[in-house]
Amino acid sequence: MYSRRKLLIASAAAAAGWPLGARAQSWPQRPVRIIVPFPPGGNSDAIARVIAAHLGEAFGQQFVVESRAGAGGAIGAESVARAAPDGYTLFLGSPSQIAILPNVSKTSYDQIKDFSPISVIGTNPLVLVANPKLPVKTVGELVDYAKAQSAPLTYATAGVGSIAHLTAVLFLDRAGLQMTPVTYKGGAPAMTDVIAGHVPLYFPNLSEALAQASTGALRLLAVTSDKRVPQLPDVPTLSEAGFPGFKVFTWNGLMAPAGTPPDIVTKIADEVARAVKDPKIVERLAGMGVAPLGNRPEEFAALIAADNQMWSTAIKLAGIQEK
User: Fold this and answer.
1) Distance (Å, rounded) from C-alpha 228 to C-alpha 232?
2) What is the chain's Cα-based Rg?
3) Is 318 left (phi over 0), alpha (psi -120 to 50) or beta?
4) Which CATH number fits domain 127-223: 3.40.50.720, 1.10.565.10, 3.90.660.10, 3.40.190.10?
5) Domain 4-124+250-318 CATH (choose: 3.30.70.100, 3.40.190.150, 3.40.50.300, 1.20.1290.10)
6) Which of 188, 191, 247, 305 is 20 to 30 Å from 289 by CA-CA measure?
7) Beta-carbon count within 10 A of 226 CB
8) Residue from 121, 103, 135, 108 nearest 36 by CA
9) Strand 180-183, strand 154-157: pairing
10) Residue 302's pLDDT band (boundaries 50, 70, 90)?
11) pLDDT at residue 185, as a whole number
12) Hey, CA dihedral for 15, 16, 21, 24, is it positive or negative?
């Protein structure tokens, strides 16, 4: 869908006689930027570099990963929303910028109108983890133990409104529990305090949990995916643990500014679909706790719509002030 600004760009191009179809057909003729809304070195940055290398080989042009962090990812999202819809600026989006932040505060971009979904590269479930000193080994035992306490248990969050926070809120609502959130500035300090025993519970994403899976520093109680993950075959899903239908995951997907020619969007989506079938790429993603997906643009759009509804509900349950 065109924003007003991009509609004006397209109208001007047509008036000038620019061959938009031909331009799209010959794309790309120069390097393409992939904007990552987080600092370098994290999971999103690594995923972007994996897919950028594949796209570069497939299209014969360099795909450059560029970090634009800040404001929970809003700075990077805004820069792409305002970019020319010509296929030379892409966005590695996640639920944080597309389904959570716009439902919490007023953003300078519209998460639906200002972007064209291309394809989700992969998904990453969360894992309910507990400090081993907590006397529970299953989700059922955790629920019973929490209900028997005279004071609410605490749980770590990687910031108010983070996916870890809102996933915990959804779980507590389903379980009929009340717990007290302890907020940290990011996942690393939250994980550190859970391992140290200062806070007993946390919902890190799978990539964070995998680093501790074999150390004994944490007890892994359940994953939030609909099926068990191959990296943790002995860890049940929350559905198996007594919460049927509980399914939460984060994702990383390529998006373009609204109004990007559909054939460019399709070309990129086709290559993402090919990439996630490459055994070497699958192996690299699995090492990050990422399950490859490579869905179609219309499927990605449907996922965004469902996520906006789910996270909006979680935000209300959490009592976070909405815009």
Assistant:
1) 7
2) 21
3) alpha
4) 3.40.190.10
5) 3.40.190.150
6) 305
7) 15
8) 121
9) parallel
10) very high
11) 87
12) negative
d(CA 33, CA 91): 8
Q: CA–CA separation, 89 vs 77, rounded Å?
A: 11
CA distance 254 to 201: 32
Q: Can you tell me the distance from the alpha carbon of 273 to that of 285, in angstroms, rounded to the nearest whole number?
A: 14
What ranges do the domains of the chain cover? Answer: 4-124+250-318, 127-223
Mean pLDDT of 33-38: 96
- End-to-end distance of the chain based on CA atoms, in angstroms? 23
| DSSP for 204-241, written as a single string | -BHHHHHTTTTTSSSEEEEESSSS--TTSTTSPBTTTT
- Both tokens assigned to 323: 């815009």
Q: Write down the pTM of the prediction.
A: 0.88
Residue with tokens 């074999």: 214
